[in-house]
Amino acid sequence: MNKLAFIMLLTIMLILNATISMKAITTDDDNDLNKGTVQTESQQKAAEVVKYAWQFLGTPYQMNGMSSIKGFDSSGFVAFIMNHFGYELPRTSPLQSKLGKKVRLKKVTKGDLLFFRNKTKNVIHVGIVVSKKGDPLRMIHSTSSKGVIITDVSESPYWLKRIRKARRLIR
Fold first, then answer.
1. Alpha-carbon gap, residue 114 to 41, rounded angstroms
2. Which residues form the domain of 116?
3. How deeply is 119 buried, as exposed, middle or buried, from its count of CB atoms within 10 A (0-12, 13-18, 19+)?
4. How many domains in the chain?
5. How far apart are CA 48 and CA 110, in angstroms?
6. Predicted TM-score (pTM) of this structure
7. CATH number of the CATH domain containing 98
8. Which pLDDT belongs to residue 37?
């Protein structure tokens, strides 16, 4: 198989994987709408942010990346998504972690940003919460090993022990 055919096959597989992943996810907002639950403007905006972010599941990792074609790193992905909705975010996760309102981890909800630290407690990673308050904590983020994915933080010892803080930009 030549290089071009391999790249095309890989691209098709990534697109199919992202499409299947998106179909497998039922948004809480769709369920709430069916039940007639009233959402605040900020909850609706957060749902739009998360829904938009899901379109990029399967996008590859790219160091310093902010491109839906070439790929994202974690802060580039968050900046790209939030910029789409008019939030001007700095390029790096340490700077992003200074924006918005502090949120206790027990109070995080869809659309909030989760920041993660290294051993010296410096912020080195960021993701967008996709779960509602009270549900198992899940986020969408770009990882160096898998690109843009959804991770169940509440079930991951790796991510749980690295949580540094949460911030809310959408109000």
1. 21
2. 3-168
3. exposed
4. 1
5. 10
6. 0.80
7. 3.90.1720.10
8. 62
**What band does 31 get if pLDDT is binned at 50, 70 and 90?**
very low
CA distances from 78 to 10, 33, 38, 83, 118 (A): 25, 26, 27, 8, 19
How far apart CA 132 and CA 121 sit, in angstroms, is: 27
Average pLDDT over residues 139-146: 97
**Token pair listed for 12:** 């098709």
d(CA 141, CA 96): 14
Cα distance between residue 66 and residue 72, in whole Å = 5
Question: DSSP assignment of 71-135, as one string?
Answer: EE-HHHHHHHHHHHTT----SSHHHHTTSSEEE-GGG--TT-EEEEE-TT--EEEEEEE-S-TTS
Check if the beta carbon of residue 138 is closer than 8 Å to that of residue 54: no
State whether residue 55 is helix, strand or coil.
Answer: coil
